[in-house]
Design brief:
Blueprint: E1 2-14, E2 17-19, E3 26-29, H1 30-36, E4 43-48, E5 54-62, E6 69-72, E7 84-94, H2 95-100, E8 104-106
Parallel strand pairs: 1-8, 2-6, 3-5
Antiparallel strand pairs: 1-7, 3-6, 4-5, 4-7
Amino acid sequence: MMIEVLKSKIHCARVTEANLNYMGSITIDEDLLDAANMIAGEKVAIVDNNNGERFETYIIKGERGSGKVCLNGAAARKVQPGDIVIIMSYALMDFEEAKRFSPTVVFPDQATNKLPG
């Protein structure tokens, strides 16, 4: 049996931009992607802590070190710059593998979206 489990999470990042005039997706600083074990094109679920919106999109790699977290296209209507979001990706795993798996969770600084340290 295969089940879907949390693979990676960027917990409480600040939205830096909302770009309605772009074809869909979320642009995320490459440093955050590396730390969270996420890649460009990966499907993600996004939760906005400020307004309760929940939606899915895919990742576009943002400039390394920029702190950028930008919702693009229709998703831009679901957030405001400054909102705090949780970005999650999931993976299908065999049930026994999933019991042993530990997801990658990163906690960026909310003011800069940079990683501590």
